[in-house]
Model the fold of this input.
Amino acid sequence: MNGAPWTAEQIRLLILHYPHRPTRDVVRMCGHSLSSTFQRAVKLGLKKTPEFRASPAAGIMIKGTTRGAAYRFQKGHVPANKGLRRPGWHSGRMRETQFKKGQWPINKDPGFYVLGALRVNSDGYIEMRVSFEPGAKGWRGLHRILWEDRHGQIPKGHIVRFKNGDPLDCWHDNLELITRADNCRRNSIHNLPAPLKATIQALGQLKRRINEKRSGRAQRHSVRHAARSPQAG
Done:
């Protein structure tokens, strides 16, 4: 009765017997499939009683009991297929269709599993394989690798951006290091007119240059002050 509606009599039988009897028996009584019987029981909030679950009819293994011992393999049991599966044994065309030792799957590019392999991820960035860790852990952005190779480790709170906005252009002259805050401000002005956007970006660059100069002067002043101190030397 797949897909057939439940009658009032079938529901009565389900409510009466489901909590206390094996579900296979209830299936025969109600005339519905096992799946339909389970779904209807859940919908009605029916559950097996603790007494039934503890009984042998439930077929549930209970710790500390010997229930099911009669159905276990006994000591000294000889498997029915003993001696049939020998090393090198093949049936039919199994030998010629099996993978050979060292064979590479035809749908896998061997270069994909080599350190230094490149790929373009779902965000459009070029990545390089740097380890064989699973998933994305084994890959790093090529632009970050190239920047660190020339300028050193990327400071905390900074990112490497592409000046022309093309993530596939990883040439050194197209990379720049900016703070995440500056990156957020840049991303928020994309809908402004081009001249205004260029002015804001130029102003940001000017502020960074000024801050770099001030930071350099402060460091030099600190060094001179320490040199002139009576305690120096």
Q: What stands out?
A: Helices lie at 8-17, 23-30, 34-44, 50-54, 94-97, 142-151, 180-187, 194-228. Residues 110-178 form one domain. The chain has a mean pLDDT of 83. The chain is about 40% helix and 10% strand.
